[in-house]
Amino acid sequence: MPKDTIFGTTALAALALTASAAFAQDGCENRGQLDEQYCDANGDLVADAPEDESQLRNPDTLVFAYTPVEDPAIYEDIWTPFIEHLEESTGKDVQFFAVQSNSAEVEAMRSGRLHIAGFSTGPTPFAVNLAGAVPFAIMGADDGRFGYTLQVYTQADSDIQEMADLAGKRIAHTSPTSNSGNQAPRALFPDLGVVPGEDYEVNYSGSHDQSMLGVVAGDYDAAPVASEVVDRMAERALYDPEEVRIVWESDPFPTTSYTYAHDLAPELKKSIEEAFFSFDFEGTVLGEEFEGVSKFVPITYEEQWAVIRQIQEANGVEYTPEGLAAE
What we know:
This protein is an alpha/beta fold.
């Protein structure tokens, strides 16, 4: 199966076309935000498996994709140990396909050409609602922790003690499209007593690194940043942790969701889950690439993506092909 037939450059157009041609399932009493071709009778926010067993799929070859990255060829090698484990667990051949965009990845699952996929944090709700993806796992640590947090940093000797104190200060956001660096603050901060863009002027730094270094240098009074970026900066000694302190920290945001298509046969779904949850990261190139990760942790879209849905709703995101293109 040639890669360009799965992840073509016209994926967004195809997604829009199939969305308009979708037909409603007869007797579907609850659909929520799902596309017309899916139903959610149990209310768990993801597409139900087809009731007609003839519509369930159990392909001989499974297609697996990881979220778009700068160098897909490198990640194909990184994922090789897991793919071999997945083949052994399912008894099927598994093909890795490098995706070129979030739109192409969503369309590939929607059209039935992609069976298992890792979707980035923001695009996951689009995959769920437009493509029938069912998130079931995420990378985590031995103790079950996963994801990253939004942290608000200021100088160690700053007079900023709580979030309301950000009013009238010089605050750095990273970029308009950043989740933790802009969209999450705009969605969450009002409930904490300060409204970005109203109570303080938003200064875009360009990156989490620049926001943090700007706080250290005194260019900004405070900045919302992603914990994982700040941790890596500290490990590289790019700043002295003693020079700053945290004003506020969010609950964890999820990272990449690992999903399967809603219409796979139940026994196949079970074997896929077993493959993920039995995989040992230790001593593999996958474990080396994702430092601090030791296993896949079970999750649900309804629970772990609640904060992401809240943030996207507050920012006017709509789960349509056009909304996906804007991500």
